[in-house]
Design a protein that fits this description.
Length: 212
């Protein structure tokens, strides 16, 4: 990748990460409002849902301090999304299952951006795919734990699998020579589409029947 292309690609990934942060923050704030948390609690959930997966990724790849803490834009975007959801919840609630829609969009964008950042730090394709998945699901896990729910990734329709599919599509496309922005878009669209299809058709991984 020539220098100008690398700069454009890094900018593209950063935009994906910021947009994903915003929609994930809205999903966290929506959960907070539905659990009747106060404004501080809603903002905490919005920040955690939006950034915890990225913080985990950055710690693993050695990007210290993590971008979500070092870059003021992540906190600003998270707070803005939380305030918008808190004070305009009836507006966001008009969407069908708003938390799930925001969560699916955030999952798609952040999983791809996470895999891209791992590649930028010269990790191999397997590590990049796994870290893309971790980036996508980490915030949602902590969000659900904070409101005393079993994390959605462990109990509902396909979730981590869709993040893995999106990250895999992006990384595989990049390695076979597909332009990075096209590969990233394809991965994000696939992840988002799979997640919404899983919700609509209740697609799940098998669950153990337990004791008989």
């Amino acid at each position: 990748m020539i220098p100008d292309q690398k700069v454009l690609f890094d900018t593209f990934l950063h935009v994906l990460d910021i947009v994903g942060t915003f929609v994930f923050a809205m999903s966290g704030a929506t959960v907070g409002v539905r659990h009747k948390l106060d404004l501080f609690g809603v903002l905490v959930l919005s920040f955690v849902a939006a950034t915890f997966g990225g913080i985990t990724r950055d710690v693993i790849i050695g990007a210290i301090p993590p971008a979500a803490i070092n870059d003021w834009r992540y906190l600003t975007v998270s707070i803005a999304a939380g305030l918008l959801t808190f004070y305009r919840f009836p507006l966001t609630a008009r969407l069908a299952n708003p938390a799930q829609v925001f969560d699916a969009a955030g999952l798609a964008l952040v999983a791809v951006a996470g895999a891209g950042k791992a590649l930028a730090y010269h990790l191999g394709p397997t590590a990049a795919i796994l870290l893309g998945m971790v980036t996508g699901i980490g915030g949602g896990i902590v969000r659900d734990v904070l409101v005393r729910e079993v994390p959605v990734v462990f109990r509902t329709e396909l979730y981590a699998v869709t993040a893995f599919a999106g990250a895999f599509t992006f990384v595989a496309g990049t390695y076979v020579g597909v332009p990075s922005n096209i590969a990233a878009g394809a991965g994000a669209i696939l992840c988002f589409g799979l997640r919404l299809a899983a919700i609509k058709y209740r697609l799940k991984l098998p669950v153990s029947p337990g004791e008989t």
